[in-house]
Design a protein that fits this description.
The structure is a single chain. The protein is mainly alpha-helical. It has one domain: Up-down Bundle (Sodium/glucose cotransporter). It is 75% helix and 1% strand. The chain has helices spanning 4-29, 35-41, 48-59, 62-75, 81-104, 109-116, 119-153, 157-206, 209-218, 239-255, 258-265, 270-283, 286-304, 328-336, 341-376, 382-407, 413-437, 443-466, 471-474, 477-498, 505-508, 530-547; strands spanning 313-315, 321-323. It has a two-stranded antiparallel sheet with strand order 1-2. A hairpin with a 5-residue loop joins β1 and β2. It comes from Anseongella ginsenosidimutans.
């Protein structure tokens, strides 16, 4: 339980964010321009700092704060790969994907697929995008937040979740993308502040880095500091699975997922879109140190007896003590922080929930309005389109809440989230990569690759859960993503060679003639140039991986 002061701080924060969101929605409502364009894409006025912060806020949810700390406690820095590898993927987004998205003027990524391939590809991606937004971006985030809030406030998980979703829904559904990115920018700052506070508290209690490494060394567990593990590692994530599997997940998530890329689509111009994506890449360096590392500190503190694990420890049927590490973040908050600071960290957790949910709701409303409703009723007015988007967002919120009991069966929410992505991403990553880099990728090949690849992913997912001891069930999810991707590439290339097509004038402009073509496009001068920023980010990541 936490003090009244912390409850007051958390409450003031929630009301403040809702007020800012409503203010943003009313401010944009009074501006000129297309009603739907302003609602869904913020009137294409977003600048690079806002884009970068919004990308980070939409990505980082309560799942990350809770589950990355859990992973740090369980396995050390290993799952930090999901954060650092994202920086490489954001370089790909800035260099290769952004120019097409901005130049084509699309409102959604399914719209882009129709221009490059055909309508069937667009329809399928719309369905998958809505499905993934509901499960990955909303339901998992709500579940992680509910677990923490129930522990801290002693309020039923579903009551707290419904309360938060109603408040987020008010300003997101009314205000559109403008309200989302403004509130996300604030939430990112609060979220990072809360994470830094927890990290500093762990560092202080531990007595610094050397004290932690001394504990690990005494237990012969220095491997917990390594990001890249050898083949056969017990984690199921050896180094090669990171380099082979993560790009499949990452390219879909950062370059081809509507919820994420919608912040880029609202950019003022191509340079702001590119710089915003790269800015987010620099920010993604932080999570290893402020989300994962505290969990590792918590493990060392528990070994020293400073952190009491009794409240999250139970006895299994064999009489052995089992630690439920899902609660480690809550434990750190309660045992390591004084009154007042707890309220700030709880506000950071709420930021993670609210930013993730608001971003996903806006993308869902855009997809339903543009890619489904307007297609069926092309004469629909802007105001009607916005209304449809708002209703669809509200319905998806309800569906997400209904999915929570099922998703709660995962031992680790972060692993569960990426396990789902690993089975969704391969066909979409394949279709986007081949579509942008290979002119021979045909419409029929994309259509059947999306259909067959998605159904195969679902079949493999079900088989691995129903028959966990089978060959399929024993394959780590990162390698499963890689194998599914290889099958999808083989399928799309084969169909393209069997059934080639002649490009239209529009589709000819939607793939690079060679890999170096995007680097010839002009950018800002000086340090703001996208090539300079990409090179700097790449260098920093190589140096970091050489140390960890």
């Amino acid at each position: 339980m936490i003090s009244n002061l912390d409850v007051f701080i958390s409450g003031i924060y929630i009301l403040g964010i809702v007020a800012v969101g409503l203010w943003a929605s009313m401010r944009k409502a009074g501006s000129g321009g297309s009603v739907s364009g302003t609602y869904f894409l913020a009137g294409k006025t977003l600048r690079w700092p806002t884009i970068g912060l919004a990308l980070f806020a939409t990505n980082i949810s309560c799942v990350h704060l809770v589950s990355l700390a859990q992973s740090g406690f369980d396995s050390g820095l290993l799952n930090g790969n999901f954060e650092w590898m994202a920086s490489f993927t954001l370089i790909l987004l800035a260099l290769f994907f952004v120019p097409f998205y901005i130049k084509s003027g699309v409102a959604t990524l399914p719209d882009f697929l129709e221009r490059r391939y055909n309508r069937a590809s667009r329809d399928w991606l719309t369905i998958i995008s809505i499905f993934s937004a509901v499960i990955i971006h909303i339901a998992f985030s709500l579940l992680a937040g509910g677990i923490v809030l129930e522990t801290l406030f002693n309020v039923n998980m579903y009551v707290s979740i419904i309360g938060i979703t109603v408040l987020v829904g008010i300003y997101t559904i009314l205000g559109g993308l403008s309200a989302v990115v403004i509130t996300e920018s604030i939430q990112t700052i609060v979220l990072v502040l809360g994470a830094v506070i927890i990290t500093a508290a762990c560092w202080n209690q531990m007595g610094g880095w050397s004290a932690m490494t001394a504990v690990l060394e005494s237990n012969n567990e220095m491997s917990r500091l390594s990001m890249l593990r050898p083949a056969g590692d017990d984690s199921g994530m050896p180094w090669y699975s990171i380099f082979l599997g993560y790009p499949i997940l990452g390219i879909w998530y950062w370059c081809a997922d509507q919820t994420i890329v919608q912040r880029v689509l609202g950019a003022k111009d191509e340079n702001h879109a590119r710089a915003g994506a790269l800015f987010c890449g620099f920010i993604k360096i932080l999570p290893v140190f402020i989300f994962v590392l505290p969990g590792l500190f918590a493990y060392a503190l528990a070994q020293k007896g400073v952190l009491n694990l009794e409240s999250i420890t139970s006895i299994d049927s064999s009489g052995a003590a089992v630690v439920n590490s899902k609660g480690i973040y809550t434990l750190m908050i309660v045992q390591l922080l004084p009154a007042g600071l707890i309220g700030i960290v709880v506000a950071a957790l709420l930021s993670g929930i609210m930013s993730q949910v608001s971003g996903a709701l806006n993308s869902i409303s855009t997809l339903v309005s543009y890619d489904i409703f307007k297609r069926v009723y092309p004469e629909t007015s802007d105001k009607k389109l916005v209304k449809v988007g708002r209703v669809s967002a509200a319905i998806c919120l309800v569906i997400s809440i209904l999915l929570l009991p099922l998703l709660n069966s995962y031992e680790s929410l972060f692993i569960g989230l990426n396990d789902v992505i690993a089975h969704i991403a391969p066909p979409i990553t394949c279709v986007f990569l081949l579509g942008i880099f290979w002119g021979g990728a045909s419409p029929k090949s994309a259509q059947y690759t999306l259909w067959i690849g998605s159904l195969l992913g679902i079949a493999v997912y079900i088989a691995s859960k129903v028959y966990p001891e089978s060959l399929i069930g024993q394959i780590p999810f990162m390698m499963t993503a890689f194998y599914l991707f290889c099958i999808c590439v083989l399928l799309q290339v084969s169909i393209s060679l069997i059934a080639p097509f002649e490009h239209t004038a529009e589709s000819k402009a939607l793939f690079w003639k060679n890999p170096f073509q995007p680097l010839t496009r002009p950018g800002w001068t000086g340090m703001g140039n996208y090539k300079v920023l990409s090179g700097l980010l790449l260098l920093i990541m190589v140096v970091l991986y050489s140390f960890f």
